[in-house]
Amino acid sequence: MTSSTPQVNPTFDLSSCEQEPIRTPGSIQPHGFVLALDATGRVVQASDNLVQHLGKPPAAVLGGTLADAIGAPAAAALQPELQDERVRERPSFAATIRLSEKDHCCFDVLAHRYDSLLMLEFEAMTRAGAADFRHLYPLVGDFLQQLNDSDTIEQMSRTAADEIRTVTGFGRVLVYKFDEEGHGHVLAESNDGSLPSYLGQRFPASDIPKQARELYAANRIRLISDANYTPARLVPPVNPLTGAPNDLSFAALRSVSPIHLQYMRNMGTLASMSVSLMVKGRLWGLISCHNAAPCHIPFDKRTACEQLGQILALRITSREDADELQFRLEVRRVMVSVLAGLTQGADFIENMGSVFPELLQFARAGGAAVAVDDRILRYGDTPDESQVRALIGWLDQHTHGDLYHTDRLVEHYLPAGAFLHCASGLLAMPISRIHKHYLLWFRPEFVHTVDWAGNPHAKEAPPDAPRQLSPRTSFATWRETIHGRSAPWHPGEIEMALEFRTALLGIALERAEQMAELAEELGRANKELEAFSYSVSHDLRAPLRHIVGFSDLLLEAAGNDTLDKRQRFLKNIKESARLAGKLVDDLLSFSQMGRASLRPVRVNMNELVRSCVDKLTLDTQGRHVQWHVGDLPEIVADPTFIQLALYNLLSNAVKFTSQRDPAIIRVDGRRDGTETVFDVSDNGVGFNMDYVHKLFGVFQRLHRMEDFQGTGIGLANVRRIVERHGGRVSATSSGGHGATFTFTIPNTLPSA
């Protein structure tokens, strides 16, 4: 390549680009000059090319005023634009000035405050008039009209590249995006044919070191008018206020790295401009403009290009957000379908196996496996069972956290080389905090080629080579074939997988709670079974012994006893059989309470109480019983069960008031917030409150059977019926002064 000013290709004594002082080069590009002012307005620093632009050396202006340096008329025109509130960290346009009437050269003046100084940058212009920003607004409007909501990022980038090439006159404009590793991928290009095309090619991350990226994020536009320039040094060479090298991060004239200038010459470009594309606060990519010959872009046109870049970045943000939302909605839809399938049965691993097709769709995977205890289920294209077990063992030892994912498993787990074809990528989700339970997704190897703008490995020197830094010299297309990697995992897939894991743990927790409830219910059932065993062995044995005993007496006395004696034996046998039958009936009734489903309807409690009182007529014959039934509110409940509960409570009241004359039994009801409360009270013998906790247990009696007949199941039935309705039952008594039984029925049943 040829250049207007031949230069020797230098070799720089730097170990890496990361150490190059690109923010503090100590010099500027020579197509303008710099004056730095302190807080009092004195010129304390200047570039050493003042002679070319002002006809005087830096020493002639240092310590003087701005008027001394550029003349009173120019200083007077510029001074109003230098107020504190107008000048900030980023350069802003102050004015276009002419330093002499005889000299037709004008200067665009840019001002910014940084590093304790007011920096004034004077860019030489060939035009005679002031900078004109009027073309900026129609340009932005036309650009917006060319963009459609349905455009892809590549289409929008192509439109932006065309517009910026039109504004600047550069020969080639590229729009490229940085990937996760920092490599740049050219998405769009506008080219007049004067420079080679790089469309679709990639530039290695080493072309733009980390500190350069950080500077691109801070200062959104950078111009190099001529790659063959000779830098103009600052005088003095350090900031006179801080004693350190000047930080020129935001200076438009900042001199750039000699390495980069040689990089440009090697690429065949003598002028370049870069516009940063910032998406959600990060450097998403660049608009990179190149020209084969030197070319200066004035500030007004640079501002237009910067505005177009900002609009493109906003549209990229909107497009990416829309695409991301659509992607997440689809993944969430599949996830909901999977979770619905996982709740169908009790066996978790079998449920997981039934939704394998949806699991593959969820993670866009080629295969999946679930491991629970010693069981492993596989689906699709996966490693064999022994390989999966070994992989889980490695995951358990070497990974931590809620999720593990990689698109290059073999780089982390060498045995994966045996199954690259089906598992170059892995997404692993532990589904237990205690056991080695895992859900695994596998992605197959994605063999693909990448076209680089030059060999990205060409700068890699042997370990024993001198550590000298120089730019690469070739940008010819270099094709690389990538092996051992899968398609990368989308950030949305990772987030949805974490959400899916939380949902899985929620299902597991719900199952654990259900098992705890079942265990509690089983415990109650065991206690009831123990009571049943006791009843069978004690309560039921007694009447059966009576039947056998009196039958034996009847047989032994056959033919010798009187008719009255035989009738008495038979009466005792009949009574014992009746008691045994009632015990069996009560046991069946209690068992039915836990199995039969509720059929709730609106129940008139007054009618229900009257029907129970009518049934108790035989038990109250010959007794003086006073019934006091209030105006009872209606409820929604199962009438059969509620009648049985009421009958048990009222029959208890009749039984335990047998020694009272008169016997007084009251039934009252009232609404109380979200439930209806009923009280059944009597003036009977009552009970000892120390044993109230036993009152509603199966076969629990607080009085001797000889005093008050009963099986001890009635109140247990009452409790079970009321709790089935979602209510509560309780009892109070003052020994010898009656008892009150209270039960509640919710206004809205749990099953309704």
List the helices and strands and how they pair.
Layout: E1 27-28, E2 32-37, E3 43-47, H1 50-54, H2 66-70, H3 72-78, E4 92-98, E5 106-114, E6 117-125, H4 136-146, H5 153-168, E7 172-178, E8 184-191, E9 202-203, H6 210-218, E10 221-224, E11 232-235, H7 258-267, E12 271-279, E13 282-291, H8 299-342, H9 348-354, H10 356-363, E14 367-372, E15 375-380, H11 385-398, E16 404-406, H12 420-423, E17 425-430, E18 438-443, E19 448-453, E20 477-482, H13 491-537, H14 541-556, H15 563-595, E21 601-603, H16 605-615, E22 625-629, E23 635-637, H17 639-656, E24 663-672, E25 675-682, H18 714-724, E26 729-733, E27 739-746
Parallel strand pairs: 22-24
Antiparallel strand pairs: 1-11, 2-3, 2-6, 3-11, 4-5, 5-6, 7-8, 7-13, 8-9, 10-12, 12-13, 14-15, 14-18, 16-17, 17-18, 19-20, 21-23, 24-25, 25-27, 26-27
Helix pairs in contact: 4-8, 5-8, 8-10, 8-13, 14-15, 15-18, 16-17, 17-18
